[in-house]
Specification:
78% helix, mainly alpha, 0% strand
Length: 312
């Protein structure tokens, strides 16, 4: 496969994965509002079902064995790429509005750039640092506005913001650190083990809540939403993102996260789950303005040191 075609597949896979994540925010918020499935129960159900789907798919793909070293790396990838991001996200969704969550999550590419600088030795210029400061100002503005809102329905708590930041940082570390692992093995092999590990790790926290949950009280609408989360936002999306990781740089993969807040914000406002206010617009402008500055700086740096095909 040519380098350009491989990169095109990587771009399309990354776009598709993050587009699916956009609707994921809305559905998780609705499930949280129903209150029948706790975050830890929902995470365990997603991890278990996704693991089963990948294991069922495993016999029809190329057999791929993990060395002992790669198996240990896979455990780390599961923790940083699945357990921490999904648990913090599912908990934060109960404490945040969809627009606030989406905008703060848009800082993930900036965090990924720092991870790339640390592990891939990519330089950070003053322009990049200025972009980070601008985006941080936007995040801080959202926090100040949300904590002073009188309407509780529109409230985003400081704990919620902290969880979103942890979510973004964890996924940035996953994208930046484990790209070599993703490049050495096929997606199905890695995902079947990663989701199995994630489910096992969650069991000490979710076993009792899972047994105590009244599944009969869960509405059909919520079950349809859970079905989307399992099949699309977990199985399909986590099948696509590693394909992007294998073919394009971590920062480029994370850039497609900008599709996520656009879709989530548009849907949530259209459905009346959130409202568009001037402070949100100003905060979003600061965040995306900072991201644009960082991306422009990165592009110039890349032009001077274009990587070989094995590095893209």
């Amino acid at each position: 496969m040519s380098t350009s075609r491989s990169q095109l597949i990587g771009h399309l896979a990354s776009f598709g994965g993050y587009a699916i994540f956009g609707l994921n925010i809305i559905l998780c918020k609705d499930i949280a509002n129903e209150g029948d499935l706790s975050p830890v129960v929902l995470f365990s159900l997603r991890a278990l079902c996704a693991s089963m789907l990948f294991w069922l798919l495993s016999p029809v793909v190329k057999n791929d064995r993990l060395s002992r070293r790669d198996f240990l790396l896979m455990i780390g990838a599961s923790l940083l790429g699945l357990v921490v991001p999904q648990m913090t996200f599912l908990t934060a969704i109960t404490m945040t509005t969809p627009v606030d969550l989406s905008v703060v999550q848009s800082t993930t590419p900036i965090m990924t750039m720092f991870v790339a600088a640390l592990f891939l030795k990519e330089p950070i210029s003053w322009k990049k640092a200025g972009g980070v400061a601008l985006s941080f100002a936007g995040v801080l503005w959202i926090i100040l506005q949300s904590t002073h809102m009188a309407n509780g329905a529109d409230h985003t708590s400081p704990v919620g913001f902290l969880l979103i930041v942890l979510n973004s940082l964890s996924f940035a570390l996953y994208l930046g650190i484990f790209r070599p692992l993703m490049s050495r093995h096929n997606v199905v092999t890695l995902m079947k083990w990663m989701f199995l590990v994630a489910f096992v790790v969650s069991l000490p926290f979710s076993a009792r809540p899972m047994l105590a949950t009244n599944y009969g009280a869960v509405s059909a609408k919520v079950w349809w939403e859970v079905g989307y989360l399992v099949v699309f936002a977990t199985f399909v999306a986590y099948f696509l993102i590693p394909i992007g990781q294998q073919r394009i740089r971590p920062t480029l993969v994370s850039m497609y996260g900008y599709v996520q807040p656009i879709i989530a914000a548009a849907i949530s406002i259209a459905l009346g789950m959130d409202r568009l206010t001037f402070p949100k617009l100003l905060a979003a402008a600061l965040v995306f303005g900072g991201v644009a500055v960082v991306n422009r700086s990165r592009a110039k740096g890349d032009a001077a040191t274009q990587p070989s095909s094995s590095d893209t």
